[in-house]
Each structure stands twice: as structure tokens, then as C-alpha cells.
Predict the structure.
Amino acid sequence: MDRRFFLAASGASTLSLGAVTPAMAADGSSLPAVNVVYTADNLGVHQARKGSHLPKVEVADGKVTVSTPHGVSDEHFIVRHTLLLADGSLVGAKTFTSKDKPVSEYQLPAGYKGKIYATSFCNLHDLWLTDYNV
């Protein structure tokens, strides 16, 4: 299976109850999720790409807007956004083409308070994650 296809297909499943699930080493110790899911604190091999790949989150009146300030071209674009609640449940997702501006909107469950997770998947630079407290 192609690595990018695997990440695109299973990226959201790497999130578990508000944390990136670490991999397990043969000796039972956990390994950090380095160079798999990128965050503001874990830029891995993409140090210079934080500003253009990390999803931005805005919340107003229960409506969440996710945007990624990334340019678009046929060769390099944001493929998908997802929004998850702290328990890992999916609020929604939007898939983009190379012609789309990477902006998506979601409605939170009525009265929701807590952490949310927004992901942005780049066709060349993998999966990016931002958490936000509502």
C-alpha cells in the first residue's frame, strides 16, 4: 500500500481520545509519532512548512471554520480537512481538488465544550493536526 494513500485513508484513526496514539516498540515502550502526524510542536522533517500546512481553526456560535493558508496547484495542494471531537468522533470532513481553496465549515454539537482536532492533509507533505479548546 502506498504511504500517502495509507495516511489519507487512516489519518483520522491515529487520533484517540485527544492524543496522537504512539507506536509501540518491540520491547513494549512507546515511540513518538514523529514524521507521521505534524503539529505546531512536532514539525518533523517539515520545519519550514508550519505556516502553510498547519490548519487554522476559528470558532463562533458553534460553527467551526478550518482553513489552511496553502497555495494550490495541480502538483501541490491540500487534499482534505477533517474535524474531530475530543472523544475521536468525526464532526465532518471535506475533500478538495487542486482548484479548491482549502476552507471548510462544520457545526459543533449543541452546547459542545472541550477540545476539537482539525486535520489538513497535503498531497506532498502529509497530515497536519491542530487542537483547539472550545
Observations:
- The chain is about 10% helix and 40% strand.
- The domain at 3-133 is CATH 2.60.40.730 (Immunoglobulin-like).
